[in-house]
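> @MW can you paste both from yesterday?
MW: sure, first one:
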Amino acid sequence: MRNHWNYSGFSRMEGIVRMEYIYESAQRSYEDFASGRVLYNAQGTTSFPVRLASEIAQRCFHILEEKGVQGPYTLYDPCCGGAYLLTVVGLLHGRRIRRVIGSDINAEVLGIAGKNLSLLREEGLEQRAEQLKELLALYHKPSHQDALESADRLRELIRMSRLEETVCFQADITQPQTEESLASCKGTQIVMTDLPYGDMVSWSGGSQAPVEDFFNGIHAILDPARSVVAVISDKGQKLKHDRFKRIQHLKIGKRQVAIFEPL
């Protein structure tokens, strides 16, 4: 493996290296972000490790800053499922994000995605808190009281947010995009997604080469000089494409993370 370039004591390698946390180096509790607590749980979709999500997002921020691209940024997940990943990043880093966009081929999960993205705005979180209060009054469960306390802490994060808009729509990123989809994603600077894999979530649609078509799809919406792409998958999928330069390739547990610059 050849050392490509360095920053903050970390070597970006052309081959896979074991994940090293730079920005989330200290262990802390992320229970406020647990799926089904305050964030809505979408049946048949997966959650995502919060610490890893935050680390990847901050690496993307740093790469854009190195390019001279300043935030707040537009963040897009084209395989968003219930938008758990987007919502977590939006809550943790709302001061650095202007727009959050989610799309998915599965229309059934987009209702939950919309509810989760609503939590990034004060009115959406207040509505969720009222639901939790009603559940607490009905069932007197400690879990509902805990969730209300989490909502209070999340409210403090939202008050520091610079988020202006959330967008959620149905689309198959492995197929040519409509003018409406392209318009919705205009100005995207960060694509961050957890590709379908495993028994719970798999690729759907008619693509015979979904990973390749995924890269083609996102390339069509990006300005190469002003964007970065972070892709997470299982280790069985080959994360490379001739229209993208891979600048980081990491592994953590059963996952791999690759960060790209479009060419």
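MW: second:
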Amino acid sequence: MTSEQIAGLLKFVAGGGGLLAIHNGISLAGSYELLQVIGAKFITHPPYQQLRFYRTLNEHPLLHGVEDFTIDEEPYQFEFDPYTPRTVFLEYEHAGKRWPSAWEQSYGLGKVVYLHPGHRADSFRPEAIKRLILNSARWITKLEGE
């Protein structure tokens, strides 16, 4: 992204806008300015495989109607920005360990959601993913009660 595009996105979100980044949308965190907006950067991923995803919270607007699920996906691994507070609401299991898969955070007056699943078209077929996207769009646009 150009400096002007980065500044525009920062101004939009900080001023109360919403940002939903899905799967490789994490690549926005390639700039240090946008690392704080997204909250983490992509490090690596083992091979594409079947992964089990788990809710990490009992109650959160982003998890309304979402149950734990299993899909084939890349097990993305992240390095979190230590200065950006966030709420991880979804994790996946890989190699006997749970890894963060989705989180939300504030940036200025705005809201940001990152959802890791989304490598292939099949990733979007499960009802849980559809609900996560819908809930996220409502949450970042402050329409969560609709």
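> thanks! Residues 18 and 141 are 6 Å apart (CA to CA).
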